[in-house]
Amino acid sequence: MENEFSGKLSYRQLGDELVDNVDRFATILRIRSSAPATRKDTAKVKPPEWIPAAMRDYGAHLNGLLLSWESKGSVKVTGHIDLLPLDRIYQSWQGIVYTGEGAFEDPRLPEFRPVDRRGDETAVGLLHNAQASPALYLLEFGETPYPLGLDIRGYFTLLTHTLGLSYWTNMVAELARQPAPVAEDYQPQGPEARRFAAELPYLAPALDLPTFIRYYNQVRLPQ
């Protein structure tokens, strides 16, 4: 699980690397991939020019991956990845991500498009607007999107290491609040981030929290 490939491999190759790493360290419980998006699929998004180049590349080469697993060791940890295809990312999410009826809802919620469903009420996604920014956010549905300091390639690069381990995006959200670069001896503060740090050695003994933080610093977007 070296971290030298983030700028070299296509999303399809990164997807293959991800599946290989999961198969190496865990038992795959469920897996499903999607067909690459066509130009016709991309043209259906309104307006298509708001799709960041990184997301177009993702759709053309991978365009979705569902993967659930359980670790092979005596201490069981689990992970889940639900990367959506472009047609689902850019569908309407009213009634799921936001109601459209609450005066106190964050005004950015109608723009939020889930990319990786982290649970029934949580997702990592981006804002669909004229800025066409590739920046990703962590969102508890109905709440405020929180920036992760990552685009889809940086997110995917970290995903090939964490393999979607529970609460890894909560750890990233904490790191994103710290000045860059984050100190490698940073200690998690929230309960979810602490659980991620505690479970990480049971997944991949060679990947400890300082190493994960170093990888995050490498792919973090400029502040």
Q: Report the β-strand fraction as a percent range.
A: 15-25%
- Please identify, by name, the CATH architecture of the domain at 11-163: 3-Layer(aba) Sandwich
The number of E-state strands comes to: 7
Gross morphology: globular
What order do the SSEs take from the amino end to the carboxyl end, as H and E?
A: HEHHEEHEEEEHHHH
Distance between the termini: 27 Å
Protein structure class: alpha+beta
Low-confidence stretches: 1-6
Helix content percent band: 25-40%
Major sheet summary line: 4 strands, antiparallel
CATH class of the domain at 11-163: Alpha Beta
Number of helix segments? 8
- Report the radius of gyration as a whole number of Å: 17 Å
Mean pLDDT: 91
Determine the CATH topology of the domain at 11-163.
SMI1/KNR4-like
CATH homology superfamily name of the domain at 11-163? SMI1/KNR4-like
What is the subunit organization of this protein? single chain
**Order of strands, widest sheet:** 4-5-6-7
Protein name: SMI1/KNR4 family protein
